[in-house]
Specification:
Strand 13, helix 8 (255-259) and strand 14 (262-270) form a beta-alpha-beta unit. The chain has helices spanning 46-52, 102-105, 154-157, 163-173, 191-200, 215-221, 233-237, 255-259, 283-286, 300-313, 327-335, and strands at residues 7-12, 21-26, 34-43, 69-76, 88-91, 94-96, 117-118, 137-141, 146-147, 181-185, 204-209, 225-228, 242-247, 262-270, 291-294, 319-322, 342-346. It has 2 domains: 7-162 and 318-349, Alpha-Beta Complex (Quinone Oxidoreductase, Chain A, domain 1); 163-294, Rossmann fold (3-Layer(aba) Sandwich). The strands form 4 sheets. Strands 3, 4, 5, 8, 9, 16 and 17 form a 7-stranded mixed β-sheet that branches. It is an alpha/beta fold and 350 residues long. It catalyses: a primary alcohol + NADP(+) = an aldehyde + NADPH + H(+). Its EC number is 1.1.1.2. This is alcohol dehydrogenase (NADP(+)).
Length: 350
């Protein structure tokens, strides 16, 4: 690849709900502060499916999903100071922000009030659509690029750029650690990383899942306890137990029942994003001074902190590597919960 290259191979959804197909997309020339990345692996996130199928609102098509990107720097702009060719790097859910608001100044670019720019299905400041990681290369400003430590294989690192940081951020913010009882709702692409990270932080970890089908996996990943929420007695048995519950599921839950599992001053944090509205009886939070909250990915400093933490503790995602021609099959398997626990595309097959 050279600075003058303008098109690269990719897989895109040509229209809402249409199967993804091989195509080519434009990539901008490497600018003053840009890095060009030879993408090696791209994770498949449930949000890729939501957006490719227009589940969260009007999409921009053709759409190239993918915001769990791991690769190697091949070229840097003349003003780049943090990276050089050959570096192992990652790109997550954002490729730009206003950079001037209070949140951006605090390293919370995910909450940019001036308008952050998603890695795909967004319009960049140049007015052009952004295209994600289901492609061979990407050009990104160095500020929105993070370093992947040597302690993590690139294929296992890719899902950390969304799934990893999405769980790390609330676990750190609500101070999961020794002496804290943490529950993770759902043991999927997000949840399995929540279990690993919460365990590494020193918390007592419980998985709340619909069934006990994945119990052995949950315990192996670091959970201390595993309960099936299809058993009505669980909500009575565990009432008032947890300091923090993180829900990773993308379907509406009976929130009042889950809030009953919290201790006084406990927090129930949503990182899964159902397409449908949810209902709540406010007495469920008034009693016990409980918090119902949400959390979205993490800023760039925290994403780097998460990668360093995962490398230190030997944490990578549990993955199934696939070729690009299996993306549509993988989408159906994700919806059927038939993956343990993250599909990762070998982008050399694009």
């Amino acid at each position: 690849m050279t600075t003058n290259a303008t098109t690269v191979p990719a897989y895109a959804a040509p229209a809402a709900g249409a199967p993804l197909e091989r195509t080519t997309i434009p990539r901008r020339p490497v600018g003053e502060h840009d890095v060009m990345i030879d993408i090696k692996f791209a994770g498949i996130c449930h949000s890729d499916i939501h957006q490719a199928r227009d589940g969260w609102g009007t999409g921009i098509y053709p759409m190239v999903p993918g915001h769990e990107i791991a690769g190697i720097v091949t070229e840097v702009g003349p003003g780049v100071t943090r990276f050089e060719a050959g570096d192992r790097v990652g790109v997550g859910c954002l490729v730009d922000s206003c950079r001037t608001c209070d949140n951006c100044a605090a390293g919370l670019e995910q909450y940019c009030t001036g308008g952050s720019v998603g890695t795909y299905n967004a319009l960049g400041k140049d007015g052009e659509p952004t295209y994600g990681g289901y492609s061979s290369h990407i050009v990104v400003d160095e500020r929105f690029t993070v370093r992947i430590p040597e302690g993590i294989a690139l294929d296992e690192a890719a899902p950390l750029l969304c799934a990893g940081i999405t769980l790390y951020s609330p676990l750190r913010h609500w101070k999961a650690g020794p002496g804290k009882k943490v529950a993770v709702v759902g043991l999927g692409g997000l949840g399995h990383m929540g279990v690993k990270i919460a365990h590494a932080l020193g918390a007592e970890v419980t998985v709340l899942s619909q069934s006990l089908r994945k119990e052995a996996d949950g315990l192996k990943l670091g959970a201390d306890h595993y309960y099936a929420t299809s058993d009505e007695s669980v909500f009575e048995e565990l009432a008032g137990t947890f300091d923090l519950i993180v829900s990773t599921v993308s379907a509406p839950l009976p929130l009042d029942r889950y809030l009953g599992l919290l201790r006084t001053d406990g927090a129930f944090v949503n990182v899964g994003a159902p397409e449908e509205p949810v209902s709540l009886n406010l007495f469920s939070v008034i009693g016990g001074r409980k918090t119902l909250a949400g959390s979205g990915i993490g800023g760039l400093p925290e994403t780097q902190e998460m990668l360093d933490f995962c490398a230190e503790h030997g944490l990578g995602a549990e993955i199934e590597v696939i070729s690009a021609d299996r993306i549509n099959e993988a989408y159906e398997r994700v919806l059927a919960s038939d993956v343990r626990y993250r599909f990762v595309i070998d982008t050399s097959t694009i």
